[in-house]
Design a protein that fits this description.
The protein is mainly beta and 198 residues long. It has one helix at 143-153; strands spanning 23-30, 42-51, 57-58, 66-67, 70-83, 93-102, 110-121, 131-141, 160-173, 176-178, 181-186, 195-197. The strands form two sheets. Strands 1, 2, 5, 6, 7, 8, 9, 10, 11 and 12 form a ten-stranded antiparallel sheet that branches. A two-stranded antiparallel sheet has the order 3-4.
Length: 198
């Protein structure tokens, strides 16, 4: 459970085990049948994470208060919408995905994430395993952190960072793939100019 600000690169094995609490993650997954004959896979996940360090978390304030733990929750959905052939063996077609995550805004710089997108498998004739998709994610900065940042440094922090992405994944063999990707990021880190990445 060592934080990024803790000792890095100076220890081996388990010599700090228990010193910085523990990180644990929990997830439940449900895969109900869907579609004409139950052939459109659905996966719904609900999860939580917890960090037990007692001294690592403080409020964003000039007179900070310590918290005894940190935690967060998420829910996600993967849903196949349409198949080129409605049989269990064929998985070519169109699917969607989405996720929402939350953590307390009084001790985390980012407290909400929302993401989603669409993926198509086998769009190009003769390329049945290739994947192409479009997705987005938006990260909301904690109002408490935004106010503290403005007071502390004078920097104006945007309310959110948003990224839009498009990709095509070429499956060249069972062991090799190439994935060209383009992303546009609005307000990176809440402070910087919009960015285009390839």
């Amino acid at each position: 459970g060592t934080l990024p600000s803790g000792p890095q690169g100076v220890r081996w094995g388990f010599d700090t085990l228990g010193d910085n609490g523990a990180v644990s993650l929990y997830q439940l997954e449900w895969t109900p049948p869907n579609g004409p004959n139950g052939e459109l896979p659905t996966t719904l996940r609900v999860g939580a994470w917890h960090h037990s360090d007692r001294d690592a978390w403080t409020t964003f304030a000039t007179d900070p208060t310590n918290f005894s733990q940190n935690y967060g929750y998420w829910v996600s959905l993967d849903q196949m919408l349409w198949k080129e052939q409605y049989c269990a063996e064929n998985d070519q077609g169109l699917g969607i995905f989405g996720q929402f995550g939350w953590a307390p805004g009084d001790r985390n710089e980012a407290y909400e994430t929302i993401l989603g997108g669409i993926v198509y498998k086998g769009w190009v004739e003769g390329r049945d395993e290739d994947l192409m998709g479009i997705g987005f994610t938006t990260l909301r900065f904690s109002p408490v952190f935004r106010d503290f940042t403005l007071v502390d440094s004078g920097d104006f922090l945007s309310t959110r960072e948003t990224a839009v992405e498009a990709f095509y994944k070429l499956i060249l063999s069972p062991y090799l793939s190439v994935q060209p990707d383009v992303q546009y990021i609005s307000h990176p880190g809440g402070l910087y100019k919009d960015a285009l990445l390839a």
